[in-house]
C-alpha cells in the first residue's frame, strides 16, 4: 500500500499459502489490483488494497533473488522462474514489466506428482507411457494440464524401470525424486543458455528419455526428431488446441522446402499425441480433463506422411482407432456428458463440431437434455 512501505515477504508468502488453500491454479500480482486468484477458471480478488509499484517490485525481488535464480530485476523485461515455499508448494513465476511497473503471475505446482487416476486421465495415457522410443507430444492451451500430465508420465516410468531421464525446462516445474530411475533436470536461464544448447548436450549425457518443456523452434524440433530417430524417447509439449494442429505445428516449424522430409521423419518416429482441455465439472467442484488421443499406427503414419490427410486423423481416432483407446475431443466430451461429469453447455462450448455433438446427444437421449 502506498505510504506504508512495500509488501513484506511474510505477506507475499501468506498470499501464496492462500492460493494453495483455495486450490487456485494461479495468483496474479499487478499494480492497481489486489492479489487475484484463478480458482476453477474464475478470477477472485483477495480482500486487500490494490498493489502499489513498490509492492510488485518487492515481489519481483523476492522471486528473483531466491537462491539459484541468477537474476535481479534490472537484468530483463520478462522471465519465468521457479519458486518454492517449503511445506506449501512450488510455483512457476512469470515476472514481467507493464507500463513501467513490475508484475507477477504465480502458478501453483504441488510437490507431489499426481498419478494418472487422480488426474482422471483415460487408460490410453498409461499405454502411451509404456513407449520407450520415439516422440510423444502433449498439447493444449496454457493452463490445461500439459506439464502435470508429462510429469505423471515420467514419474510413472521412473517408478517402473531404471532409466536415465534428462529434462530441459523453462522453468523447472515438478521435481522428480525417488523411484528406480535417474533424473537430471536443467533450467533454461540458470543451468543452460537455451533449449537448443541443453538438447545438444543431452544427447551426450547417456539419456534414455529426454523431456523438453516446450517445442519452440525449428532447431529444437530437429534435435528432438534426431533423438527419437536414434532410439530415445522424447516427450514434449506444444501450444495447439488439438491433435491435427499439433502435427501441423511441428511440420510448420520448418521451411517449406524441408517439410516433405519432416513429415516423413515425423511419421516414422511419432508415438502419440495427447491434447488436453480442462473443463468445469457438472457439480462445479473442480476441473476435469477432456482428452484427444492419437496413437501412431501404420495408417496414422501414412496419413502424416501424405500431409493432405492430416485433417482426417480426427475421423480415424473416432472410428478405426477407437478399439486401441483413441478418441477425438467430441467423442470424449460425449462420454463425459453421458457419465454426468460435465454439463451440456460445457460439452457443447468445447466441441470441435458443436452441431454434430448436439445432434448425437439428442439422438441418444431422445431430446435435448436439461
UniProtKB/TrEMBL annotation:
Residues 203-217 form the Bacterial type II secretion system protein E domain. PROSITE patterns: T2SP_E (PS00662). Pfam families: T2SSE (PF00437). CDD domains: PilT. Belongs to the GSP E family. NCBIfam families: pilT_fam. PANTHER family: TWITCHING MOTILITY PROTEIN PILT, TYPE IV PILUS ATPASE PILU. This is Twitching motility protein PilT. It comes from Anaeromyxobacter oryzae.
Amino acid at each position: 500500500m502506498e505510504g506504508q512501505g512495500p509488501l513484506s515477504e511474510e505477506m507475499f508468502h501468506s498470499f501464496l499459502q492462500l492460493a494453495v488453500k483455495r486450490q487456485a491454479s494461479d495468483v496474479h500480482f499487478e499494480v492497481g489490483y489486489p492479489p487475484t486468484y484463478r480458482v476453477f477458471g474464475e478470477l477472485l480478488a483477495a480482500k486487500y488494497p490494490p498493489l502499489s509499484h513498490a509492492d510488485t517490485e518487492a515481489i519481483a525481488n523476492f522471486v528473483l533473488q531466491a537462491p539459484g535464480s541468477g537474476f535481479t530485476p534490472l537484468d530483463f523485461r520478462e522471465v519465468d522462474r521457479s519458486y518454492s515455499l517449503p511445506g506449501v508448494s512450488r510455483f512457476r513465476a512469470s515476472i514481467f514489466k507493464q507500463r513501467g511497473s513490475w508484475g507477477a503471475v504465480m502458478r501453483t505446482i504441488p510437490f507431489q506428482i499426481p498419478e494418472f487416476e487422480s488426474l482422471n486421465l483415460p487408460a490410453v495415457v498409461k499405454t502411451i507411457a509404456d513407449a520407450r522410443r520415439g516422440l510423444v507430444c502433449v498439447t493444449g492451451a496454457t493452463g490445461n494440464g500439459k506439464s502435470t500430465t508429462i510429469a505423471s508420465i515420467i514419474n510413472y516410468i521412473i517408478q517402473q524401470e531404471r532409466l536415465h531421464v534428462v529434462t530441459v525446462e523453462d522453468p523447472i516445474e515438478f521435481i522428480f525424486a525417488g523411484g528406480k530411475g535417474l533424473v537430471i533436470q536443467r533450467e533454461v536461464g540458470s543451468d543452460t543458455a537455451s533449449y537448443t544448447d541443453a538438447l545438444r548436450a543431452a544427447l551426450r549425457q547417456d539419456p534414455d528419455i529426454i523431456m523438453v518443456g516446450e517445442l519452440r523452434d525449428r532447431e529444437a524440433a530437429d534435435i528432438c526428431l534426431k533423438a527419437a530417430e536414434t532410439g530415445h524417447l522424447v516427450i514434449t509439449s506444444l501450444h495447439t488446441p488439438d491433435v491435427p494442429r499439433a502435427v501441423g505445428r511441428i511440420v510448420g516449424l520448418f521451411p517449406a522446402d524441408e517439410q516433405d522430409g519432416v513429415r516423413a521423419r515425423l511419421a516414422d518416429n511419432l508415438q502419440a499425441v495427447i491434447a488436453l482441455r480442462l473443463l468445469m465439472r457438472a457439480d462445479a467442484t473442480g476441473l476435469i480433463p477432456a482428452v484427444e488421443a492419437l496413437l501412431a499406427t501404420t495408417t496414422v503414419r501414412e496419413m502424416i506422411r501424405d500431409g493432405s490427410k492430416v485433417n482426417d486423423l480426427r475421423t480415424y481416432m473416432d472410428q478405426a482407432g477407437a478399439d486401441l483407446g483413441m478418441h477425438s475431443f467430441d467423442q470424449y466430451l460425449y462420454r463425459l456428458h453421458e457419465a454426468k461429469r460435465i454439463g451440456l453447455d460445457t460439452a457443447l462450448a468445447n466441441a470441435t463440431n458443436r452441431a454434430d455433438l448436439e445432434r448425437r446427444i439428442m439422438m441418444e437421449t431422445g431430446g435435448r437434455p436439461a
